[in-house]
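Incident review: delayed structure delivery

Summary: a single-chain prediction request sat in the queue longer than the usual turnaround. Root cause was a stuck worker, restarted by the on-call engineer. No data loss occurred. The affected request and its eventual output are reproduced below so the record is complete for anyone auditing the incident later.

Affected input:
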Amino acid sequence: MQRDYLDDVITVEEKAYGPHHWSKESFFNELNSELAKYYCAFNEKGELTGYAGCWQILEEAHITNIAVSPDFRRQHIAEALLTVLIESCRKAMVKYITLEVRVSNTPAIKLYEKYGFTSLGVRKGYYQDNDEDALIMWTENIFYDKFKSIYEQNLKILNEKAGITYKL
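Output delivered after worker restart:
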């Protein structure tokens, strides 16, 4: 993600999350943080279709957000963005990845479970817009054979199915 993309990022953010979304200033601050890693997805027309970010701190990463414009959902963009975050973590030798997700966001939960995340708890009333609970999800060590096997198989299927390529 680059500063030049922030207007488009905010457009996706507003469409994805409605009135309770991050501000442009929040993203600007993230881009100025050495801990934050953010990536954007573009379609063949060069339109920003989604973005994802995480904080990488020592051996752990926390996924802060993955968002795809409603106009481009169901095209494996969120999955591709998740794999970009995992690749970024692998390159940085991050061992564990965590995130919070709304308990009602079944498609996201299924995606995370597909990639080896498991729920290890609940944050009660985590989301301020409606006091919805959040599942706390973690991976095991991403360098363990079990995780690597699941990840590599899913990545192969994603590339075959969606023909998605990416650059870090």
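Verification: DSSP finds five helices and six strands in the chain.
Action items: add queue-age alerting; document worker restart procedure.
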